[in-house]
């Protein structure tokens, strides 16, 4: 079997999105096992209020991820803007490896930068201010110290607030800033980037200092459709799930 690396993001799994949960569990059983490594680039969950949350379908997700990582497939996870409270306990229970906000991998000879993508949306100033605050140890400790029931209520309120805030923003503000993309790729010495977050799947070609560069945007998962970016030595393809 040829080596294969798979990339997914923006599943936004929750109790209410049963179709997406079923699709993900099917993916873990049928397609993911053939991969040498699976990279989940953020927003696996629609909201994550702490590793102690037993709300369905969290238990099933943990169990199936553990089954996959106990085989020959490595699973790597980046936190997204919805599940940035995923922590070490989740990783210990699932065998998943937690990555930082930016990670460079050798993708069949090509250094490739991986990121969720929210840090690239620098035109969205209110979100970036919230992100900076919410990623401090003090803020996270304050949230995680609250009772589970209160965190559940707060998560629902946050999702509702986020929905209305998005309605008041232009599409351009919620997309990546191209100059930020170039600067980050320069900083990490790469000409290839894979990310999610924007829900605008595409392959963007551009130049960095006279060299050809590419930015792959992963598709978000929907009720009736989902895709995985599969990569082998021969190249890449999008495969339906």
List the SSEs and their pairings.
Blueprint: E1 5-8, H1 18-30, E2 37-41, H2 58-69, E3 74-78, H3 88-94, E4 97-98, E5 102-107, E6 110-115, H4 125-134, H5 137-144, H6 148-167, H7 178-187, E7 192-195, E8 202-208, E9 211-217, E10 227-232, E11 235-240
Helix pairs in contact: 1-2
Observed structural traits:
241 residues, alpha/beta, six-stranded mixed β-sheet, five-stranded mixed β-sheet, 7 helices, 24% strand
Give your account of this protein's structure.
This protein is of the alpha/beta class. The chain has helices spanning 18-30, 58-69, 88-94, 125-134, 137-144, 148-167, 178-187, and strands at 5-8, 37-41, 74-78, 97-98, 102-107, 110-115, 192-195, 202-208, 211-217, 227-232, 235-240. The strands form 2 sheets. The chain has a 6-stranded mixed sheet with strand order 4-3-2-1-10-11, with helices on one face. The chain has a 5-stranded mixed sheet with strand order 5-6-7-9-8, with helices on one face. Helix 1 packs parallel to helix 2. The radius of gyration is 18 Å and the shape is globular.
- What is the beta-strand fraction? 15-25%
Overall helicity: 25-40%
The pLDDT mean sits at 94
The structure class reads alpha/beta
Taking strands numbered 1, 2, ... along the chain, how are they ordered across the largest sheet?
4-3-2-1-10-11
Q: Regions with pLDDT < 50 over 5+ consecutive residues? A: none
The DSSP helix count reads: 7
Distance between the ends: 20 Å
Order of helices and strands: EHEHEHEEEHHHHEEEEE
Query: What best-fitting shape do the alpha-carbon axes yield?
Result: globular
Kindly state the number of beta strands: 11
Largest sheet: 6 strands, mixed
C-alpha-based Rg, rounded: 18 Å
């Amino acid at each position: 079997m040829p080596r294969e690396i798979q990339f997914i993001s923006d599943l936004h799994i929750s109790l209410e999105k049963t179709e997406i949960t079923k699709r993900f569990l099917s993916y873990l059983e049928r397609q993911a096992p053939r991969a040498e490594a699976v990279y989940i680039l953020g927003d696996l969950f629609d909201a994550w209020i702490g590793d102690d949350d037993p709300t369905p379908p969290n238990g099933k997700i943990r169990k199936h991820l553990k089954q996959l990582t106990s085989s020959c497939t490595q699973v790597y996870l980046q936190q997204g803007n919805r599940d940035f409270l995923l922590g070490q306990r989740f990783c210990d229970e699932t065998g998943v490896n937690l990555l930082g906000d930016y990670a460079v991998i050798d993708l069949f000879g090509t250094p490739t930068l991986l990121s969720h993508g929210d840090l690239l949306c620098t035109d969205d100033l209110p979100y970036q201010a919230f992100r900076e605050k919410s990623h401090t140890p003090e803020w996270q400790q304050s949230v995680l110290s609250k009772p589970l029931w209160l965190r559940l209520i707060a998560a629902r309120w946050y999702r509702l607030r986020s929905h209305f805030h998005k309605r008041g923003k232009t599409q351009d503000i919620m997309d990546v800033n191209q100059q930020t993309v170039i600067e980050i790729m320069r900083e990490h010495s790469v000409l290839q980037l894979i990310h999610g977050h924007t829900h605008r799947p595409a392959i963007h070609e551009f130049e960095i200092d006279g060299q050809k560069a590419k930015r792959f945007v992963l598709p978000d998962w929907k009720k009736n459709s989902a895709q995985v970016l599969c990569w082998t030595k021969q190249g890449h393809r999008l495969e339906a799930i």
